[in-house]
Amino acid sequence: MVDNDIILDVKSISKHFGALKAVNKVSFQAKKGEILGLIGPNGAGKTTITNLVTGDLRKTEGEVFFKGKNVSNLWPFQIARVGLTRTYQVVKPLQGMTVEENVLVGSLFGRGDRKNDLNHAKKNAQEIMRLVGLYKKREFVVSDITLPDLKRMEFARVLAMDPEVIFLDEVMAGLNPSEVEETMEMVRKIREDKQLTIVYIEHIMKAVMGISDRIIVLHHGEKICEGSPQEVCDNPAVIEAYLGKKYAKEVMNS
Amino acid sequence: MMAQNDNKFNINIILIIIAILVFIFLPNFVSGYYVRIFTAIFMYATISQCINLMSGYMGYLPFGHVMFFGIGAYMTAILMGRGLPFIVAIPFASLTAIIVSIILGFPVLRLRGHYFAIATIGMNGAIMSVAQNATEITGGAMGTTFPIILLPPGQVYNYFYLAFLGLMVITTLAMYFIVNSKFGYGIRSIKANEDAANSMGINTTYTKVSAWAIGAFFTSIAGGLYGYWMSFISPDEVFDLMFVTNSIIMMLIGGAGTILGPITGAFIIESLSEFAWSGFMEYHLAALGIATIVIVFFVPKGVVGTIANKIKNRRIALSKKAEVSNG
Amino acid sequence: MSLQMLVNAILLGGLYALMGIGFSLQWGISGIINLSYGAMVVLGSYLSLVVFNALNIDPFISMFFTGFLLFFLGAFIYRFALQPSIKGGIVFTLIITFAIRLIVENIILLVWSADYRTIRLSYAGTNFQFLGTFFPLTKFITFLLAGIIIYLSYQFMTNTKIGKGIQAVALDKEGALAVGVDDQKMYMINFAVGTALAGVTGSLWASIYSFSPHVIDVMIGKVFIIAILGGLGNIWGAAAGGMLLAFAETSGATFLGSQWQEAIGLVIMVLILLFRPHGLIGKKFFG
């Protein structure tokens, strides 16, 4: 029986590098329209899971279902075309091309079941750039813009693909507090406008708390907790993972 | 603003048509010597366009690309040797080249950068070896001949001149439409950032193999024409890496990643070759070498590339000014 | 394989190993596919010829001079022609090294013409026998010297400060930069070492075989195969690659007839690139 609410169903995926289990039998589901936080200390496996789900990395075991369809064996470009997308922690702009061209490529090649000839794609790209606040800089070559703008462009690019699920991989890395605020506002607003499902990956607990509907906590490649932000905050295993056993005991006893 | 751009576009088209017409009638006004030089220019421009598509636009340098030139030459020779007229042999020869490019393309285009370039050199060498050793079919290392054309030589040279001119124009047009299409954005994205291209929904394997097949197609036709023009080919001649290296240098001089770059580069290098240092045959190689180094250092974007860049920068500066005064 | 063939292959392999190492280092560590490498080898041969004709000094001794000279030539080329063009990518560096090859080839043609040259050593024809097989003296000395130089190169790379610096940038550029290693200087020295090895190879080659500008293409073809067989930047890998090529050539010539030998060599090289780009030996760099 398919639960219509669940748009992404990750079943027990693992990634072994020889003896190292980078990701070990992780399962989770994302409901349509929610912001699902994916947190954990550095090295917990968050980006690896993103790579496994989007096909950038091959799974050692496990399956991924998107909108009820098994996408476990698709190529990354095929997964992108059905609407399951991601941004990169270290941005990957199309070098040598302008902001507009970057977003245009997303528009041209993104979701496959729509009119994406050059004319439609150009219009779509312009609209997205306005939405995200990059229209004025559309003719800038990517080597000439700042990091916050690069992140904004990467977000615009993925939006232009008309996705249904976006894995935002540490989109805050490298931004100062006011830039973080701005970005969060933009993400919130756009999520509402377009009814996106966002898997929000972060390693800083605070950044994730205010925005997520639910949170999944990873540690050493395994899921150690899942629930509302408050539940996760109070969970002893989570506190231990972030603070270590010794300090966790102190926090618990205080 | 739009009307202004349209006018510029139309002027360019008119200029190009005039240029083509001039070249069509040129043989009536110049000696056979010049006709042959221009024919060589058109041929190199064609090959250079194919290399430009792979390298200048897509970022994969097919150093062994001459293999398709040789395949085109040999397949045409073999088929004509069996009695087929040139017009029929050429499509089959280019079909062979396309098939080879697809079969070899899938495995070899998974390699990046250096490895891809070297692998194509290896492939070219292997195919050349086949041509050298399959003596019953190819005539072996001694080479093979084409049927003689029973027409006065001047006329023959003019026909090949026009044929290569036509090939160059068609190839360039094809490149223009490809590069400005959706497929062209796919090609450019691969060079810009192949990982990102994949994650955006571009089927990079299909794009890479297709681009290579397109290059193989036009290059093989050039090879077939070349063989018929020369009447005689040998393996180490039509699989010679110098064809590719010359084409690469021409691409760099003219401007990699531009449509007119390869043509410009072909004109410059061939002219230099014939007029600047033909009087100094002993310094021929060194002159080409030094010229190459100078260009790479002082005009890295090539002639057309540098001009195109200046135009673009001016346009951006003007539009920025307009925005400031409007907003 | 007969014992004589085995001996022939090993003696040849030593020379190939030395030749391949220089090219492999330049490609694997300095990141330059040096299309002028063949020209450098042949240049080494001609330099030894000059010294031999002028001073009657054997190439086995003049090879030090050749290596020394070509070290600085390599450093010069890297610093002024290659380092500035690296940011242009492989197209630029390939074309520049090709241009350098053209220039060197032209110089050789102008000074010495395209004729084949030889260095006639007085003891060139002598062999000695061991276990019933013939060891041509010049080839034997070449093998010994090649082996010594390969060993010295290995010692340089692993036991000197500069060598360790080169290793460092090869294995982890950021880490090396972080501890203050000048990466471009290391790449330059590495490249110069490669050119020096090419020159030494040329001198040794001249003691046995004849040479001319035509040999340039032959050399480049061989070093490609050796470097790919052995994995780039790997001294012992390239050495093994050189041995492998020597064996393939010696036995291939006997079993298959040299016709298809080249084609097979190339096919093998392409297959290795496709399926084991780190070479048959496997590990990257020094291992």
If you had to describe this structure to a student in words, what would you say it looks like?
The complex is a heterotrimer of chains A (254), B (327) and C (287). Chain A has ten helices and ten strands. With 254 residues, chain A is an alpha/beta fold. In chain A, strands 6-7-8-3-9-10 form a six-stranded mixed sheet, sandwiched between helices. Chain B is built from 15 helices and two strands. Chain B has a two-stranded antiparallel ribbon with strand order 1-2. Chain B has one domain: Orthogonal Bundle (ABC transporter involved in vitamin B12 uptake, BtuC), CATH 1.10.3470. The two termini of chain B are 17 Å apart. Chain C is mostly helical and 287 residues long. Chain C has helices at 3-28, 37-55, 59-82, 90-112, 137-159, 161-171, 173-178, 183-208, 215-230, 235-255, 258-275, and strands at residues 127-130, 133-136. In chain C, helix 1 runs antiparallel to helix 8. Chain C is globular and about 55 Å long. Chains in contact: A-B, B-C. Chain B binds chain C through residues 55, 59, 61, 63, 107-108, 110-111, 113-115, 117-119, 121-123, 125-126, 129-130, 132-133, 245, 248-249, 252, 256, 282-286, 288-290, 292-293, 296-297, 300, and chain C through 27, 33, 81, 84-85, 88-92, 94-96, 98-103, 105-107, 109-110, 221, 224, 228, 259-260, 262-263, 266-267, 269-270, 273-274, 277.
Number of strands of chain B: 2
**Which CATH architecture of the largest domain in chain A?**
3-Layer(aba) Sandwich
Task: Provide the CATH topology of chain B.
Answer: ABC transporter involved in vitamin B12 uptake, BtuC
Number of strands of chain A: 10
Strand order of the largest sheet of chain B: 1-2
Q: Kindly, what is the distance between the CA atoms of the first and last residues of chain B, rounded to a whole number of angstroms?
A: 17 Å
Order of helices and strands of chain B: HHHHHHEHHHHEHHHHH
Separate helix tally of chain B: 15
Features:
heterotrimer; B: 327 residues; 79% helix; C: 287 residues; mainly alpha; ABC transporter involved in vitamin B12 uptake, BtuC; two-stranded antiparallel sheet; 3% strand
